[in-house]
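Write out structure tokens for Gustatory receptor.
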Amino acid sequence: TERPLTQRILSHIRRAKENEYRGSNSPLYKSICPLIYAIRVFGLAPYEFEDNKLVPSNSYLSFTFFWFCVYTYVIWRYLVGVLDPSTDMKTTLYHTEFAKTTGNYFVVITDFIICISTRKEISWIWNKIEDFDQAMRDLGYARKEKETRVVVWFIIGFNIVIWGIINNLGMAAFHETFLHNVSYLTVYVGAAVTVTKFSGLVLILGQRFKQLNEIAKSHVSKSRWIHVDPIIDDELVDCLHSELTAVGIKLNNVYRWSLILWLGNLSFHSVSSSYFVFDWVMDGKFHIDFINCLLGWFVAVFSQLFLLNYSCHYASSEANCMSYIMLGWKRWLYTHDSKMEVETSLHLVNRQLHFSADGFFYVNLPLFHSITAVLATYLFILLQFD
């Protein structure tokens, strides 16, 4: 047996190694920290690290209240300008813009309320993901976050470019000053940041499911030729999968109402922008500045809609294919030794992960295809009655 002093030294070394890759020092955080800074600046990340654990932060909550006041002031100035008797609100375009702007403001304020009220849940989700990464490192399967870093910088670069283009096109189309147009866009950028935050968490979760699937597949193939006890057995994989599934369910519960609001808001913006473009082109009214501006809006909104559905589809598909992998693994174990006690994997088939909008529908790529088809049909009907 080891001496007490030796045990304390080894325990200290073990804790030091664990803390070396947790919190702000974790590879995951380092790879996505630019995006976290952007989300925090927009008041949607009121969290901080304490003893390498993510906890709610009251200091960063000040950003949330700051943007709450800014968005409210912007929408108030917009309503004052729109409701001014001298403003021409007879056109369909202005009525549509009024509905879009007020609806988007409602969505953003709801996101703030959800963000404030679910700080503990998001902290729990992040800490569970880091616990999983630490377990993988202890087993010799440390993640390399190069792909994550590339995706983060692509998202940041794409948003900078698309919102910069929309800003310039909006100034040219509506003859607005830079400050006025930017203040109007901040509310929409804030909504995009919220969608990006949720989609990012879902993609991170999907990466962990994919890593676990690849490990399970590799051990199934090794078991056919190497008849030794592997480092990772089927029970450990089952346990890790259950932990990740619990994280996914918690994440879905936090954003179940937000998913409905986001999908409705983005769908309405998509069909309205495309409607005016097609209507003007069919009537021969080539308002180039307006058309270019609305096309920019369509790209920004439709990309968010795709990201939302793709991330949920990716995570759920990676999570739900584990049942087939485990069934194949345990079938081989039973075939190799019929006297071996093999636990059933039917619970993996029955307990599948789906991101649902409060139970109304699942958010995935088939839903994205359905939304696209419905919006195209609705757009065609609008053009027929114009």
